[in-house]
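Researcher: I need the complex structure. Ligand is iron/sulfur cluster. Inputs:
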Amino acid sequence: MISVEKGYVDMAIDNSVDIKSEILRLKKEKNAVILAHYYQRNEIQDIADYIGDSLALAQIAAKVDADIIVMCGVHFMGETAKILCPDKKVIVPDMNGGCSLADSCPADEFASFVKDHPQHTVISYVNTSAAVKAHTDIVVTSSNAKEIVESLPNDEKIIFGPDRNLGNYINSITGRNMILWNGACDVHEKFSLEKILALKEKNNNAKILVHPECKKSVQMIADKVGSTQALLNYAIKDECYTFIVATESGIIHEMQKKCPLKTFIPAPPEDGSCSCNECAYMKLITLEKLYNSLKYELPEINVDKEVAEKAIVSINRMLDISKQLGIIK
Ligand code: 13P
Ligand code: SF4
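Model: Output:
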């Protein structure tokens, strides 16, 4: 019996094993597909079949033709994939990959919040547990939140959780007055306004790219506020050659690949002397863990049936509205 007590398969790998080729071989043999978020380690992004932001990963998971989905991301992404594909085996190579934002919204407290606001439509960011999604009417990601909110009647009463920064941002650009859950992402909240301004001073022509999970003061100095995919698209299309990037620094790998002649400077966090800001949860997955997870098909994500049956309604509403609005195909 293979243990996943540590949250991953902790098996020594013989030195003679060529891990990358073995991952590719196992993937083919088992009809598995590897999905990776843009915040994953470079080598995980490079070996994945698909990389993307939260919306793209959910959309791919919903459509993909494979027996096994290996989700190289954090726990809620594995849950979302499992809810969308209950008949597939969904593996997350390290189950310790949580999310500070999802953790800022415990399901029982969110259920009381919902109960305290009858007649309100409940919108939740995808960075939530399946149990929170089960109390939600429509899930959103940062790639479609604005459009989905705008698709609702002007006078619709809305509660939005869990990210207060994204919620405030959507309120400000849509003129809505959604009631917000007071949660946040530790990684995005700790970008330093002062250090970004100092970088801008040194790189006068640089444009500043900011994820909406960042604090308002950081959003205010942005040339572009957007999801990881939107920031990537902006960097590709814009004529500027230098960008200061205020989101998890893993995205810079794809930015650099797509724009080899451009310079991407990671925005630093407030604390310590680090020059970039990483999500420790996203960086837990290594090639070794990915290899072992494919080999042993563990650890597997499972979602309580009753929770999944409720959560899929709010996830599918997101995908349906996004299709109707032309955000996804
Ligand atoms: P997106 O992938 O939707 O930009 O979200 C960022 C994030 O924090 C994912 O955990
Ligand atoms: Fe969660 Fe923030 Fe890490 Fe994204 S970057 S997974 S929101 S902790």
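Model: Summary of the prediction. Residues 191-266 form a domain with the Rossmann fold fold (CATH 3.40.50.10800).
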